[in-house]
Amino acid sequence: MDNRYTLYSMEASGNCYKVRLLLHLLRLPFRLIETDPRQGATRTPDFLALNPNGRTPLLVLPDGRRLSESNAMLIHLAEGTAYLPADAYDRAVCYQWLFFEQYEHEPTIAVARSWMSVYPEKIGKATAEQLADWQTRGHRALAVMETRLATHDWFAGGAFSIADIALYSYTHVADEGGFDLTPYPGIRGWLGRVASHPGHVPLTWRPVE
């Protein structure tokens, strides 16, 4: 029986990267199947049979069960590890930042990056109002993060956790969406701490098959 996880993943996606990073940090065996929506790979009958929502990432557990939604994968994989706080309140704070990442951070910073760098052919179709809105709301999210990092090294529980992994995934490439991080010294220091964490791998890293 193959004991590896299988991750359907798009290399450029921060949501996919966060799952790849945690799998690597936990030293869990896994294989990657590059599934690029730009090539229609997430709309094929075979992929839709696995994930009717037609999105990556998609994680298939060694026993065949499947999970979609990147932060649900982080929570599942981190259970019982140092990457998910054991204290109930600290764990709730961790979840708080996971929700923040998906509702406030990803829809602005990740979307701007997607339009400007991942799907550059789209940028001409974005209105000036859309571009300005992404910048305004993205900087608002960055300011919230900066406030937290002014008094904390990490986002939850006093240690590196899946909250940091989730927020790092798109923050460290925010410049590709037109966001200048110069005004955010707390964020820049935190990005350095994450990048120097033992086991860190870059967005473009792939496991050896």
From TrEMBL:
Ordered alphabetically, the record's keywords are:
Transferase
Lineage, top-rank taxon, reads Bacteria
GO molecular function list: transferase activity
TM annotation in the entry: none
Q: Where is the GST N-terminal domain?
A: 3-85
Q: Tell me yes or no: is Transferase among this UniProt entry's keywords.
A: yes
Q: Which Gene3D superfamilies match?
A: 1.20.1050.10, Glutaredoxin (3.40.30.10)
Q: Does the keyword Coiled coil apply?
A: no
Which Pfam families does the record match to this protein?
GST_C_2, GST_N_2
Q: Start and end of every GST C-terminal domain? A: 87-209
Q: Which InterPro entries match?
A: Glutathione-S-Trfase_C-like, Glutathione-S-Trfase_C_sf, Glutathione_S-Trfase, Glutathione_S-Trfase_N, Thioredoxin-like_sf
The name this protein carries in UniProt is: Glutathione S-transferase
- Supply the source organism for this entry: Bauldia litoralis
